[in-house]
Amino acid sequence: MTTHTSVLGLGRTGEAVARGLLAAGHHVTVWNRTPAKAAALVRDGAAQAATAGEAVRAGDPVVVCLSGYEAVHAVLEPVTGDLAGRTLLNLTPGSPRQAPATARWAHGRGARYLDGVALPDPTGTGPGLLVCAGPRDAFDAHEAVLAAIGRPCHVGEDPALPSVYDCALLALTWATLAGWLHGVALTGAEGPGGDVTASAYTEVAEQWLATVRACLAGYARQIDTGSHPGGAWPLHRSIEPLDILVHAGELRGVRPALPELLRDLTRNAVAAGHGDDSCASLLAFLRTGPRKPAEMPKG
């Protein structure tokens, strides 16, 4: 199903969105403060709007990829009369506090509002993840457009969610990469059992990740229910392996900061009486308590 979709803002994200829509066969109208940025897209089949209002009138949904939420309001406020009945998909970077205010602003002008973040696939092997929040019916109504931008994932009604997911998934990416690099350093070091190539280690690591994924699912259920039974591997049994991991790093010339962090968290949890709990109980020791909200940019 083809649609008439408008894209406001042609920075890195906006251009990628427009190209994805064109590749999927959608009719695309683009607008940018600097008109010259649209030239390549126009050559590839996009229509160029002379004004933001013209772009809004040309499409539904209207995808907004500007520099910040202040820019969103500055661009759209003069054309609020054209927003009624349309869906805004806002992929602009901002904080969890800004998204709900912008959603209320859009609803007050008769528009449906989806907040989102487009996470690119750094491998270049497929579409990235498009995390969206807002009314489910608006998400479902524009599924064909969303699928042309990325792999759409609806995380809830609260428009603040995509910004938080953005940071959480970034944390997961870097923590996973750091753990993999630590393993590469250990197996690739000189000495007995060393000189393993990164590719050889990764072939085995990929098989082990299936076990890790199963652990995450199990621990997530424990956190959601508030019960963290240690089962066959209670937390106190993790201290010795973490000691070994720190020592192995010292012997093989690998910085021990990562296993030391985990060991310290685990020791603190055990000392606080959680030795028979699972690793899920470490969550309480990662949290520092409520703090004054800070801006949390997306991207």
Describe this structure in words.
This protein has 299 residues and is an alpha/beta fold. Helices cover 49% and strands 12% of the residues. The chain contains 12 helices and 8 strands. The protein has helices spanning 12-23, 39-43, 52-58, 69-76, 98-107, 136-141, 143-149, 161-188, 198-225, 239-251, 257-274, 283-286, and strands at 4-8, 27-31, 47-48, 62-64, 87-90, 112-119, 129-133, 151-154. The chain has an 8-stranded mixed β-sheet with strand order 3-2-1-4-5-6-7-8, sandwiched between helices. Strand 5, helix 5 and strand 6 form a beta-alpha-beta unit. Helix 8 crosses helix 9. The longest helix has 28 residues, at 161-188. It starts with a strand and ends in a 13-residue tail after the last helix. The relative contact order is 0.09. The mean pLDDT is 94.
Throw out a few tags for this protein.
49% helix, 12 helices, 8 strands, eight-stranded mixed beta sheet
How does the SSE layout of this entry go?
Layout: E1 4-8, H1 12-23, E2 27-31, H2 39-43, E3 47-48, H3 52-58, E4 62-64, H4 69-76, E5 87-90, H5 98-107, E6 112-119, E7 129-133, H6 136-141, H7 143-149, E8 151-154, H8 161-188, H9 198-225, H10 239-251, H11 257-274, H12 283-286
Parallel strand pairs: 1-2, 1-4, 2-3, 4-5, 5-6, 7-8
Antiparallel strand pairs: 6-7
Q: What is the SS-derived class?
A: alpha/beta
Number of helices: 12
Total strands: the figure is 8
Overall shape:
elongated
Q: What would the average pLDDT be, to the nearest integer?
A: 94
